[in-house]
């Protein structure tokens, strides 16, 4: 049974803001089908009475005291920026022409 | 004697006694890297200047009669390129981070610096630690020193290969589903995944936050223990770091090397063996179990029926967390940005940059994770996987009521050929069959060499698992086993690695 179509795959990639080439789509669609078919096995034992587990550490509400600590300087924070201007990150336009 | 063939413990003893110079030891390792790394590709970056500066400081301290600041002061080390290093490039094996120089140190890095450990450089890895062969590195695969046509395992393949190629006596790796232990097995070295929360994740570039754990890699169990104590411990900068006492693993390793395991209960996991496992791996494992019995351990078989579902659960949970974690690589604040020519908006720049920056395996996992977390599929996939995680943890809890440690082969096969599994993701994933349950439960495990597989002459690993915060148990058993195996074989396994 096919779990995932080529169109669905392209849609998921779009949701993840992940460009994929036509060739990659061709390769991935078969591979992801095999993977999803295999991992669907988890459904066999996941009964309603089993609590889900998100984490092994079992820690809740880990707080720190509200004290001033050294952090990155503005220059350090911007040191890896693809583009910066006036001490700020410079990003491509977010709104379209009509907005 | 060539310093590159000696253990970290021996080097430290020599340096601290003033018999060896850390600078000379460091130079020997840097020369070794220069000589063999064109063939092995274990290092992505070598920090000659920084390494020698630390070594000089240690030599000056010793000459002035000041005590060494840690048991590993002056000893060279390789650091997996997924841990941030201030002023030194950190790529995570990805094009996305090519040339990125982090503005801060990971806690592991800080602890190494404070301990005067000589950081030689950054080791190669599968991109963002996703993979089991180091073939997913954007900077070319790492080769296995036992046979350079084969992979060293992954994702910490660079850290493991560097040990087997005598480029460093100790390295740091990270283990999300077996990424320290499986390369240890495939290269005949020791690899440890500490209890989740035992080593800080601050500055460890996140792949799957609930599973990622940094750990020591070495050629002996004692060396791994020495490094474990340098990098481990509670860290307020990581909210999942455990603030709980951990018994000394160095003492446990020393105790174990006395060779007496009487009173120790060892459980062989029924489900981790049999069909699908290479016969030579199973024979090496059976012989290792015999050795444990000869050392006085009480060996019983233990069933963990839900381990059968662990691989499936992992390959849903890890991609889900990955799809969320890797959203940070959005081409806005750091990392690769392409197509920002004024005609494209932020959305398109993001998509195109991620397309150019990520390799195939990372893309596959982001898509799977996005799928497993999407409305309509969440319960069937991610939700069910989380339930399996509970079941696997229950199996461990029940098993550890009967025994002190569990054992299995570390990986179902020995090292495979470069290229053999790249087009078949499921066959690659199945290599993590034995290591994944431990990550899901957040418990501890290590791989110790158990010899060579009789059909192909390649190394096999024995996996020793222990309950959370009882890492000392596996070090004790591992050290006892290592001593007995080496004695029976007439030397350490690494002595049999072919000349490079």
From TrEMBL, chain A:
GO BP term (any one): glutaminyl-tRNAGln biosynthesis via transamidation
Listed EC numbers: 6.3.5.-
Catalytic activity entry: L-glutamyl-tRNA(Gln) + L-glutamine + ATP + H2O = L-glutaminyl-tRNA(Gln) + L-glutamate + ADP + phosphate + H(+); L-aspartyl-tRNA(Asn) + L-glutamine + ATP + H2O = L-asparaginyl-tRNA(Asn) + L-glutamate + ADP + phosphate + 2 H(+)
InterPro entries: Asp/Glu-ADT_sf_sub_c, GatC
Example GO molecular function: ATP binding
Source superkingdom: Bacteria
Keyword terms of this UniProt record: ATP-binding, Ligase, Nucleotide-binding, Protein biosynthesis, Transferase
Sequence similarity: Belongs to the GatC family.
Function: Allows the formation of correctly charged Asn-tRNA(Asn) or Gln-tRNA(Gln) through the transamidation of misacylated Asp-tRNA(Asn) or Glu-tRNA(Gln) in organisms which lack either or both of asparaginyl-tRNA or glutaminyl-tRNA synthetases. The reaction takes place in the presence of glutamine and ATP through an activated phospho-Asp-tRNA(Asn) or phospho-Glu-tRNA(Gln).
Subunit structure: Heterotrimer of A, B and C subunits.
NCBIfam families named among the record's database cross-references: gatC
Protein's recorded name: Aspartyl/glutamyl-tRNA(Asn/Gln) amidotransferase subunit C
Protein's organism: Haloechinothrix aidingensis
Primary gene name: gatC
Automatic annotation (TrEMBL), chain B:
GO biological process, any: translation
Domain Amidase per the UniProt entry, residue ranges: 24-473
Signal peptide: none
Catalyzed reaction equations: L-glutamyl-tRNA(Gln) + L-glutamine + ATP + H2O = L-glutaminyl-tRNA(Gln) + L-glutamate + ADP + phosphate + H(+)
Molecular-function GO terms, alphabetical: ATP binding; glutaminyl-tRNA synthase (glutamine-hydrolyzing) activity; transferase activity
Catalytic residues as annotated in Swiss-Prot or TrEMBL: 80, 155, 179
Record keywords: ATP-binding, Ligase, Nucleotide-binding, Protein biosynthesis, Transferase
InterPro entries: Amidase (IPR000120), Amidase_CS (IPR020556), Amidase_dom (IPR023631), AS_sf (IPR036928), GatA (IPR004412)
Entry's EC annotation: 6.3.5.7
Keyword Iron in record: no
Any single Gene Ontology cellular-component annotation: glutamyl-tRNA(Gln) amidotransferase complex
Function: Allows the formation of correctly charged Gln-tRNA(Gln) through the transamidation of misacylated Glu-tRNA(Gln) in organisms which lack glutaminyl-tRNA synthetase. The reaction takes place in the presence of glutamine and ATP through an activated gamma-phospho-Glu-tRNA(Gln).
PANTHER family in the record: GLUTAMYL-TRNA(GLN) AMIDOTRANSFERASE SUBUNIT A (PTHR11895:SF151), TRANSAMIDASE (PTHR11895)
Similarity remark: Belongs to the amidase family. GatA subfamily.
Self-association and partners: Heterotrimer of A, B and C subunits.
Protein's name according to its UniProt entry: Glutamyl-tRNA(Gln) amidotransferase subunit A
Protein's organism: Haloechinothrix aidingensis
